[in-house]
Amino acid sequence: MTEKAPSIDLAAWLQSPPGRYLLAWEQAQVDAAVVDLFGFNALQLGLPELNGLQANRMPHRWLAGRDLQCEFDALPFESASLDLVLLPHALERACDAHALLREVERVLRPEGRLIVFGLNPASLWGLRQNLGRLRRRSEPYLPSGGEYIGYWRLRDWLKLLSFEVEAARFGLYKPPLRTDAWLDRWQWVEGVGSRWWPVLGAAYFIQAVKRVHGMRMIGLAKKSRAAAKTAPAVALNNHHRNE
């Protein structure tokens, strides 16, 4: 009988030293990105450990799984009704990442923003994970059950759906170590990595905007005023504010 490979739950992994290291970097990135994004309706899909909308000032903010229950590929929002959608590691853990992206494109209004966080398979962390899979008895370094999507591959997907990448960056250049003490010893590599091999960071951030060719900006302005009066209907709660 073949021995089953060890696995790591995502929530448990986020409590580990590398998980906390990842969350700290992503929280800093998303806070800086969303603070000046304006509109009326914002949605975060997945990873409740990341308070992705806390710095945003849109009046209606939802976290799927806490403020509303829904399937990520069948969102309870009207088409073109959201101004911002945040996907922290949702694509790499989705049953069908393409279907999820298409659904996000549907609910975003023209010029709406999409923010994606992902783990980079072309990194030391990704290499360590793959080596762990080859050694079935060894404990994997990263959470189990996810398919890590390459940065350039994701950019191609976004382009096919008429998203234009506005900003992108990589982070987490420390080796795949398991303790705070060893991670702290490698703090110096952050500056070196971001300068000399930026695309090899363990995680990446992408911010994209939904472009609709031929859409007149005056029409967008009218639609925004209408959205201010009526928020899109959702399945459960009214709206959630992250204070």
Automatic annotation (TrEMBL):
Query: Which Gene3D superfamilies did the record assign?
Result: Vaccinia Virus protein VP39
Q: Does the keyword Chaperone apply?
A: no
Q: Does the keyword Transferase apply?
A: yes
A GO biological process of this protein is:
methylation
Molecular function, one GO term: methyltransferase activity
Look at the named UniProt entry and state the broad enzyme category this protein falls under: transferase
Describe the location of the Methyltransferase type domain by residue ranges.
Answer: 68-116
SUPFAM superfamilies for this protein: S-adenosyl-L-methionine-dependent methyltransferases
- Any one Pfam family here would be Methyltransf_11
Which InterPro entries does the UniProt record give?
Methyltransf_11, SAM-dependent_MTases_sf
Query: What protein name does the entry list?
Result: Class I SAM-dependent methyltransferase
* Organism for this UniProt entry: Pelomonas dachongensis
